[in-house]
Amino acid sequence: MNNSMQKLILIVDDDPDSVCMLNEALDAEGFSVLVALSGTQALSILSRITPDLILLDAVMPSMDGFETCKRIKENPRLTEIPVIFMTGLDSDSNVSQSFECGAVDYIQKPIRIVELVKRINLHIDKSKVMLSTKFLLDSNGLSSFLVDKSCVIKWYTPDAMHLLEQCGFDKMTFSSKIQSLLNPMIQKAEIGKYITIDGNSQSKERITITLFQINDEGFIFAVKRDQNVNKVEILKQKFSLTQREAEILYWVCQGKSNKDMAIILDISPRTVNKHLEAVFSKMMVENRTTAANMALNSLLSNS
Question: Residue 198 sits in which domain range?
Answer without folding.
Answer: 141-225
